[in-house]
Amino acid sequence: MTTETTGAVSAALPGQDTLQKFIFDNAAVRGQFIDVSHTWQEVVSRHAYPTAVKKVLGEMVAAAALLSANLKFNGSIIMQIHGDGPVRLMVVECDSDLRLRATAKLDPDAAIADGATVPQLLNATGKGRFIITLDPADKVPGQQPYQGIVPLDGDDMATVIENYMLRSEQLDTRLWLATDDTVSRGLLLQKLPHHGGKAEATPVSEEDALDTWNRAVMLASTLKEAEILSTDIDTLMQRLFWEETIRVFDPLHPSFHCSCTREKVGNMLKMLGEEEVNSTLEEIGHVGVNCDFCGQHYDFDKVDCAQLFVTDAPAEVLIPPAASIN
């Protein structure tokens, strides 16, 4: 494998996750490997999900980081599945600094087999929906987040996202994802629009570019789930593309981060409305809120709640289901 780097490549420190971008020389094909295992362990440590739920959610965590790394804006990508099976909701959020958080909501009476598939978990009657929201951090007045909503189409998470990208972005995308209790890794390949090689030192024909794409997909398709789970990024890249000339960029380092704050929780309570908040106060004397992403507890007494409804400031919360009230 012949590689070119775009600066000093720094190895990941102990406890760091890694996202490694690369492109094929003189071809409109880009790729990314990711190992987001440490972040995934932070997510798992906060929840006791069934095995099948952890597999799908962990793959979503890797996929969200892979997609976010190609976005050229300051903000967040929120990947959601609204299900109609034993799993009602899965949410992964990744910001432009590759800081991630994730959660899932299950039917309280759900009995989930270890080998349950995406359709069995989330699309039991065909009404599941896959949603990607792009939420800029610095919105101009009146600007709304961009949201793409499609049917939940696919037997696994990689296929669901590939179908979304082709339908919504008209971009050929292939994903290979693997997750267990401690490891979450993946590979993304994308075929970019071909421009005839005019900007390249050595022009490449559309036919040659297509050949490179097909060859890259064929090589990546030899990966087995067990191999992805047990092999580090550098070794996987060497095994797959040792005959290719690729350009490797400085690695990025995803991490776990929950953006919940007392102010955001207060805004969520304002969205629920004064009547509902007062009803909870009358029943138990306070309003307790647990963040569904990180488990942080926030408590509001009668004075706190009264202050929430004094101001006319707008209450805006992108994902209302991100907290449990007790």
Automatic annotation (TrEMBL):
GO-annotated biological processes: protein refolding
GO annotation, cellular component aspect: cytoplasm
GO molecular function, one term: unfolded protein binding
Cell cycle is among the record's keywords: no
Keywords assigned by UniProt, alphabetized: Chaperone, Cytoplasm, Disulfide bond, Redox-active center, Zinc
Keyword presence, Disulfide bond: yes
Domain of life: Bacteria
PANTHER family hit by this protein: 33 KDA CHAPERONIN
Protein name: Hsp33 family molecular chaperone HslO
